[in-house]
Specification:
Blueprint lengths: L1 E5 L2 E5 L4 H17 L16 E5 L3 E5 L2 E5 L13 H11 L7 E7 L5 E4 L11 E7 L1 E6 L9 E5 L4 E4 L8 E7 L11 E7 L3
Antiparallel strand pairs: 1-2, 2-11, 3-6, 4-5, 6-13, 7-12, 8-11, 8-13, 9-10, 9-12
Bound molecules: succinic acid and fe (ii) ion.
Fe (ii) ion (FE2) binds next to loops.
Length: about 200
């Protein structure tokens, strides 16, 4: 396992071995069974290409009125709780007593992408964001704390975990593209990204 440090992002390459990846995936399948993936609308009226769900007290939601955290899935039910396997990754990498209240689940098919953005819907930016990659590789782009300027990109592979803390917590980032069929972890292909956040 190696750790890359790029613009404050701590990229733990190969943090999860094959069996840890499979266990996480099966826990996430259970979550998605109870809280099916949906495609949020952006406030600009376009559908996102990424499909989403969540676990924990809060899930992230977006529609014409804006971005926000909500305590229920669009189907009205509370989000399932965050699987222990997911919490263990947070514990191992942050060493914090405080635990995340949101595990956002992003599913990227081969054509999905996520534009450069900052994660800033949370109350306290001193807590890190932990991001887990499963399945097909995604090209992760990292920019600056303000919009624009030079960027650097790294392919995130299944089992890689990124910690965004310190300056990187508010650094622009996004996913430019997915390398189809680069992993066999997901039977139907695609990429799952889990982001763990302290929300309150
Ligand atoms: C995100 O920034 O919310 C997702 C990042 C990723 O998919 O790796
Ligand atoms: Fe993000």
């Amino acid at each position: 396992m190696t750790v890359l440090r790029v613009r404050g992002f701590e990229i733990h390459k190969g943090f999860l071995d094959q069996s840890a990846q499979s266990q996480l995936l099966s826990a996430i399948r259970d979550v998605v069974q109870a809280a099916p993936l949906f495609r949020p609308d952006t406030p600009y009226g376009k559908q996102m290409s990424v499909r989403m769900s969540a676990a924990g007290k809060y899930g992230w939601f977006s529609d014409m009125t804006g971005y926000r955290y909500v305590t229920a899935h669009p189907n009205g039910k509370p989000w399932p709780s965050i699987p222990v396997e997911v919490m263990e990754v947070w514990d191992a990498l942050t060493g914090l007593d405080r635990r995340p209240e949101c595990c956002l689940i992003n599913y990227y098919d081969a054509d999905a992408r996520m534009g450069l953005h900052q994660d800033k819907d949370e109350a306290d930016f001193r807590w890190p964001v932990v991001s887990i990659s499963l399945g097909d590789e995604g090209l992760f782009r990292m920019g600056n704390v303000t919009r624009g300027g030079k960027t650097e990109s790294v392919w995130l592979q299944s089992g890689d975990v990124v910690v965004m803390g310190g300056d990187a917590r508010l650094t622009y980032h996004g996913v430019d593209r997915i390398r189809a069929q680069s992993s066999t972890l997901l039977r139907g292909g695609g990429r799952i990204n889990l982001t763990l956040r302290v929300v309150e």
